[in-house]
Amino acid sequence: MGIFQRDQQVFANADPLDDSYEPDDIRERDEVLEKYKRALQPIIDNRPTSNIFLYGKTGTGKTVATKFLLSHLEVDVAEYDDVNLSTVWVGCENLSTSYQVAVALVNELRQQQEEERISTTGYSQQRVFELLYEELDALGGTVVIVLDEIDNIGRSDDILYGLPRAQSNGYVEDVRPVVIGISNDFQFRDSLSPKVKDTLAEKEILFPPYDANQLRSILKPRAEKAFYEGVLEDDVVPLSAAFAAQDTGSARQAIRLLREAGELAQAANAEAVTGDHVRDAQNELEKNQLYEGMQELTTQGHAVLCALASHQADNEVPVRSRQLYNRYVSLCDRLDADSVSERRIRDHLSDMNMLGLITVYERNEGLSAGRYHEYELDVPLKSVLDILTSTTRFKEVANSIQTTADKNDYL
User: Fold this and answer.
1) Interval 251-271: pLDDT, tens
2) By residue range, what is the domain housing residue 336?
3) Could you tell me the CATH number of the domain that includes residue 52?
4) Distance CA 275, CA 277 (A)
5) pLDDT tens profile 167-193
6) Based on the domain organization, do 259 and 316 belong to the same domain?
């Protein structure tokens, strides 16, 4: 008998617990889905359609709702001869400029013509945009362009200015581009240039965190499909939902927690998945979530984290926000990246504090210095540098910080 054996007592079909699983229906999002459906209605009416921006933290249903509605829309428009609909989807998690997004869109539209895909260098931005407009015009009709995690482009927002104006500026003739932007950053719109804000004319839809009851409703049908009958004790689904609701309100977190609990029970050759397995899974996932939380920060968030890591390597923590901001601006200059206001940096620091990545100290020195905040990392510097070196943009800076930390015998 080999060391690996097929499980026959815990998981009947683990697919419903996978991140890529697409459910048959969207639970606990009726109000949001109705608003989203209204925003998409002009497409089926063959009318001009506003751009749509979805906001909400990771795991609140933005992406799954978009896939669900667009798949239904693609089926329903087939009934109408005067509607020509195409969709193109680009994930922007590793794209930090409009140029990179435009290249990705061209290549996605040319995915059936591998030899005609373009490289990420060697073209001017204007030429890449021209190629994009040519591809869109070739499709014709309405083209829905989904830009997932669009906040990663920061203030490099030319793509959000060009696409909505493509037809009025004469860059395309027979196509209506409609942008659906999906963002984890509630303040992303504030960072856009005034001309983009005026041009977008978008509908905004907020996806709030789920509460425990909603998460139970989402988990229950998945658990029924995923596990053998009778293997889950009664408190497993409610406990998984409660842990996730107390933390982030993320359905993704709740599903991962349930899956991890099942895997722990399987590894222990247990006859049932219990509440203790859920608690053990919560402890394990908490460690992983810190790492994932750092990965999912926006480019600006990574820049702030990089500045704080630099102070940490120099053993200059806790550091006041003014000194941290100055180093952040210097890093942005070094990276040839736009910097944002000190107020926005405090927003990013607040988000990192909620994620458990940093510690914030409130100081009050009376009339002499007043109240202020100081910051330091609440996770190992090595973990932060591992994340930063895995991103092309921050790799060189992170290596430099690593050298400083080694010299100061910090790590």
Assistant:
1) 999 999 999 999 999 999 999
2) 297-407
3) 3.40.50.300
4) 5
5) 988 999 989 999 999 998 877 888 888
6) no
DSSP 8-state secondary structure symbol assigned to residue 56:
-
- One-letter amino acid at 311 equals H
Indicate if 34 and 156 belong to the same structural domain: yes
- In-domain check, residue 242: yes
The last residue of a domain, from among 291, 326, 360:
291
- DSSP string across 65-120: HHHHHHHHHHHHGGG-TT--EEEEEEE-TT--SHHHHHHHHHHHHTTT-GGG---S
- Check if the beta carbon of residue 164 is closer than 8 Å to that of residue 51: yes
346 shares a domain with 313: yes
Kindly give the residue spans of alpha helices, DSSP state H, lying in 212-250: 212-226, 236-247
Helix (H/G/I), strand (E/B), else coil: 302: helix
CATH number at residue 395: 1.10.10.10
Q: How buried is 123 (Cβ within 10 angstroms: 0-12 exposed, 13-18 middle, 19+ buried)? A: middle
Give the model's confidence band at 369: pLDDT under 50 very low, under 70 low, under 90 confident, else very high. Answer: low
Residue with tokens 């020509």: 84
What average pLDDT does this structure show over 139-146? 96
- Tokens at residue 400, please? 């430099």
Domain limit, last residue, from 252, 275, 291: 291
Query: Are 138 and 221 found together in one domain?
Result: no
* Structure confidence at residue 355 as a pLDDT band (50, 70, 90): confident
The tokens describing 268, both together, are 């222990």
Please report whether residue 21 resides in a domain.
no
Q: Residues 229, 371: one domain? A: no
The strand pairing partners of 204, in sequence order, are 53
Q: Is the peptide bond before 238 cis (omega within 30 degrees of 0)?
A: no
Q: Tell me the pTM.
A: 0.74
- The whole-number average pLDDT for the span 227-254 is 95
Q: Is-contact 11 262, C-beta < 8 A? A: yes
On whether residue 18 sits in a domain, the answer given is: no
Are 302 and 339 found together in one domain? yes
Residue 190: the pLDDT is 81
Same-domain pairing of 119 and 79:
yes
**Is residue 272 included in any domain, yes or no?**
yes
Model pLDDT, residue 6: 77
Quick one: DSSP state of residue 51? E
Closest to 255 measured CA to CA, from 19, 10, 13, 12: 19
The pLDDT assigned to 87 comes to 97
Residue 70 CA to residue 40 CA, distance in Å, equals 9
What is the number of structural domains in the chain?
3
pLDDT band at 380 (very low <50, low <70, confident <90, very high): confident
